Amino acid sequence: MPKLYFHYSTMNAGKSTALLQANHNYIERGMRTHLLTANLDNRAGVGKIASRVGLSAEAATFDATMDIGAHLTELLAHEQIACLFIDEAQFLTKAQVWQLAKVVDDLKVPVMAYGLRVDFQGELFPGSAALLALADELREVRTICHCGKKATMVVRQGPDGKALLEGEQVQVGGNETYVSLCRKHFRDAIGDSTSLQPLHHPPTEPMSPPSAGASIAAAAALSGGEESPQ
């Protein structure tokens, strides 16, 4: 059965590389696919999906006004589409994510969406929030922080290399602008000094085991009876 997949991660985790590899697998088997990418990101050229390892492919573009369901319905009237791939899926609107769900449910075409989970302020993108809610399967594309832990957050750097705390949610950039970090180092980068300190309780003295007589008396009290005289 076709499904709506959301492959999510932070910046520079290899999402586009994973998309292009999956797309290649379909093409290698003689299947036709359709690729979409946001028209906001033209770093590799308009209508082009490119990875940092050198892979690339041509793609149609979407903006917030596009009806993706109608777009794919029209394509299917002329050709068979084995899978719809979407790059930069965080830029989808909530309505467009519902359109993708209908592509899967009604047109029986699987959809593979790839995008960022959160922005530089740790907030979900609208498209990502909708995909997390509606996708049939969620798959994390992982990368690492400079400390070696899994990176789940991203900071936007200013010209001085310091993390920016304010700004528009959407600002296209690469390694020169964004750095992926684990949550702890994200907090350090944005100047979060509200760390919780564990409370230190004084050590407790170990309890002495009860005497045999006390144990018998306690058991008798619990049973509601009294110890029988010998």
Care to describe what's here?
- The chain is an alpha/beta fold and 230 residues long.
- It has a domain at 4-142: Rossmann fold.
- 28% of the residues lie in helices and 19% in strands.
- The chain is built from six helices and ten strands.
- It has helices at 15-28, 68-76, 94-107, 126-134, 183-189, 212-223, and strands at 4-9, 33-38, 48-50, 56-58, 60-62, 83-86, 111-116, 137-140, 153-156, 178-181.
- The strands form three sheets. A six-stranded parallel β-sheet has the order 5-2-6-7-1-8, sandwiched between helices. A two-stranded antiparallel sheet has the order 3-4. Strands 9-10 form a two-stranded antiparallel sheet.
- Helix 2 packs parallel to helix 3 (94-107) and helix 3 runs parallel beside helix 4.
- The longest helix has 14 residues, at 15-28.
What descriptive keywords fit this protein?
230 residues; Rossmann fold; extended; two-stranded antiparallel sheet; alpha/beta; six-stranded parallel sheet; 10 strands; 6 helices; 28% helix
Please provide a brief summary of the model.
It contains six helices and ten strands; from the N terminus they run βαββββαβαβαβββαα. The chain has 230 residues and is an alpha/beta fold.
Low-confidence stretches: 226-230
Summarize the helix and strand pattern as letters.
EHEEEEHEHEHEEEHH
End-to-end Cα distance, whole Å, is 78 Å
Within CATH, the superfamily of the domain at 4-142 carries the name P-loop containing nucleotide triphosphate hydrolases
Strand ordering within the main sheet: 5-2-6-7-1-8
- What's the CATH C level of the domain at 4-142? Alpha Beta
Architecture of the domain at 4-142, CATH level 2?
A: 3-Layer(aba) Sandwich
User: What would you call the shape?
Assistant: extended
Helix-and-strand structural type: alpha/beta
What is the overall number of helices?
Answer: 6
From the 3D structure, determine the CATH topology of the domain at 4-142.
Rossmann fold
Q: What can be said about the biggest beta sheet?
A: 6 strands, parallel
Beta-strand proportion? 15-25%
Share of helical residues? 25-40%
Mean pLDDT: 85
